[in-house]
Design brief:
Blueprint: E1 2-18, E2 24-44, E3 49-53, H1 67-77, E4 84-90, H2 101-116, H3 125-132, E5 145-149, E6 154-159, E7 165-170, H4 177-182, H5 213-219, H6 221-230, E8 237-238, E9 245-249, H7 252-262, E10 268-273
């Protein structure tokens, strides 16, 4: 069996304040895009293993550090029973780029394990997903655009994404997430605030501000230079804490033109659509 897990973009990203637990409260529209990893699985004996290939697989661990094997172990530890798995990942989504590729892989593994199960786990997939990371529950949603709160794990609203042509500009510049959040000058978060009532719950037609942009550029000065250069060609927005930028084009030809103009500045550039329907689509027999 196999399943495809998409990349996600932060269409908007607001930091509402620093919480008492040291984490930051955010509000962000997540949206899935058509840059896809493919996770395949076959039953095997003794233990679960992972192999990888694809252009973005270099440097990705295939041991227990990988979220796929973490998801496998967690699902079994919570009471799920299924044959051990020979996992294989065709990696197309760059790691550590603000695209949520690893989180999507973890969600895909949970869905495949449920399909293979002889006994369901005691905990729900949503609880298991949240245990693996705050972005993982998004990939279990039935609509491809969701307004997320908390650390990214709370679904405040969902919507059908519009038809849009997206250019992804990826510099492969390391951006240390912890340093980004240390650079934020965020106020103390008022936990009594009624966040949901203070915001328009409809999906915005155009991307909004990412409150992490300035802090990310301080943490990684090369990112600021990259943003300055690509912004000469179109209005680019940062996804997550970086370092992938994206822009919205009027039509497929405009998207291709922008991609060609910025290609010399990027390590990787591609044109993708916003996805519609469930974030992760149906499981398919392996071809």
């Amino acid at each position: 069996m196999q399943i495809q897990s998409p990349a996600k973009l932060n269409w908007t990203l607001e930091i509402l304040g620093r919480r008492a637990d040291g984490f930051h409260e955010l509000r962000s529209w997540f949206v899935a895009v058509g840059l896809l990893d493919t996770l395949s699985v076959e039953p095997q004996q003794q233990t679960s293993t992972l192999t990888l290939d694809g252009p973005m697989s270099v440097g990705i661990p295939s041991d227990r550090r990988n979220l796929i094997l973490k998801a496998d172990a967690l699902w079994r530890a919570s009471g799920g029973e299924a044959p051990f798995c020979a996992w294989h990942l065709d990696k197309q989504i760059p790691a550590a780029g603000g695209l949520g590729g690893g989180s999507g892989n973890a969600a895909a593994a949970l869905l495949l394990l449920q399909k293979m199960s002889t006994t369901q786990p005691k905990l729900s997939l949503e609880v298991l997903a949240l245990t693996l990371g705050s972005d993982v529950p998004f990939f279990l949603q039935q609509q491809s655009a969701c307004l997320q709160g908390g650390q990214g794990e709370q679904v405040l609203a969902s919507a059908e994404a519009p038809d849009r042509n997206i250019v992804l500009a990826i510099p492969f510049i390391p951006v240390p997430t912890a340093a980004v959040f240390r650079n934020l000058d965020a106020p103390e978060f008022d936990s009594s605030a009624k966040i949901k009532s203070q915001v328009d719950l409809s999906f915005p037609e155009q991307p909004g501000v990412n409150d992490l942009l300035s802090a990310a550029c301080i943490a990684a000065p090369k990112l600021a230079l990259f943003h300055s250069e690509i912004s000469k060609f179109a209005r680019f927005h940062l996804s997550g804490s970086g370092g992938t930028f994206f822009c919205v084009a009027e039509d497929p030809q405009s998207a291709s033109d922008i991609a060609a103009e910025v290609e010399h500045l990027c390590q990787h550039v591609c044109v993708v659509p916003l996805l519609r329907g469930p974030v992760i689509a149906n499981i398919k027999p392996e071809e």
